[in-house]
């Protein structure tokens, strides 16, 4: 089977619920490698829910569908407060990136309770704002930002990542709608340790198998590089 599009590879998948410190229940899914323990964990934060972002936004859905099998990664995805997907609707209402602080904390408590290894926060668009604002509050192995718009994360919140010794990987598409590579280099200059990856031909929504593959490759390169190169075909046993 060629791995592309809606391909879903074998994994142990579990519908989960997260409980926030303000009493909300958030719905989500944990995907684990089918036959071994994960090498690391992706805690994914989806794009803006008021513009269609949710736990099934395609890069996050495809990471959960492919990376447990291809890269031995656990993938946690969930709907932030007030967000709906086929999995269900999380309690609460959109908090413009402020009350979602509790959503990030709930996800990280789940990771700790399950003793999931080496958690990396992977934020996409709005999810990068949550990662930048609140990721430093938790024990994480690193952070990956996909298409960061830097609308809600202040310059001070970005600069606070300097000197943390926590890897910060910033993946910026050439034709992003909000922040393109040249400006991103300026905006992240306050964090000299940040690794900025400019993707030629990339766009904010990473549509198409070529862009999807590039993003998943870069995630794995940061989190579990020994799994590269990722296979392009899956052979059932």
TrEMBL record:
Molecular function in Gene Ontology: hydrolase activity
Record flagged with keyword Secreted: no
This protein's name: Alpha/beta hydrolase
Keywords noted in UniProt: Hydrolase
Source organism per UniProt: Candidatus Microbacterium stercoravium
Domain of life: Bacteria
């Amino acid at each position: 089977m060629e791995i592309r599009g809606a391909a879903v590879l074998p994994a142990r998948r579990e519908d989960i619920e997260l409980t926030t410190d303000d009493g909300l229940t958030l719905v989500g899914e944990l995907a684990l490698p089918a036959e071994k323990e994960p090498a690391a964990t992706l805690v994914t934060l989806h794009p803006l829910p008021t513009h269609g972002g949710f736990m099934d936004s395609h890069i996050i859905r495809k990471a959960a569908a492919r990376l447990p099998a291809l890269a031995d990664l656990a993938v946690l995805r969930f709907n932030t407060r007030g967000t709906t997907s086929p999995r269900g609707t999380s309690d609460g209402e959109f908090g413009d990136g402020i009350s979602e602080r509790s959503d990030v904390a709930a996800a990280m408590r789940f990771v700790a309770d399950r003793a999931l290894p080496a958690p990396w926060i992977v934020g996409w668009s709005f999810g990068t704002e949550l990662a930048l604002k609140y990721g430093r509050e938790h024990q994480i192995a690193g952070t990956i930002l996909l298409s960061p718009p830097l609308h809600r994360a202040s310059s001070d919140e970005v600069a606070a990542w300097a000197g943390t010794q926590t890897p910060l990987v910033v993946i910026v598409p050439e034709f992003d709608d909000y922040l393109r590579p040249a400006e991103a280099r300026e905006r992240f200059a306050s964090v000299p340790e940040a690794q900025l990856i400019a993707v030629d031909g990339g766009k904010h929504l990473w549509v198409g198998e070529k862009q999807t593959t590039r993003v998943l490759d870069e995630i794995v390169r940061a989190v579990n590089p020994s799994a590269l190169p990722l296979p392009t075909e899956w052979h059932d046993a």
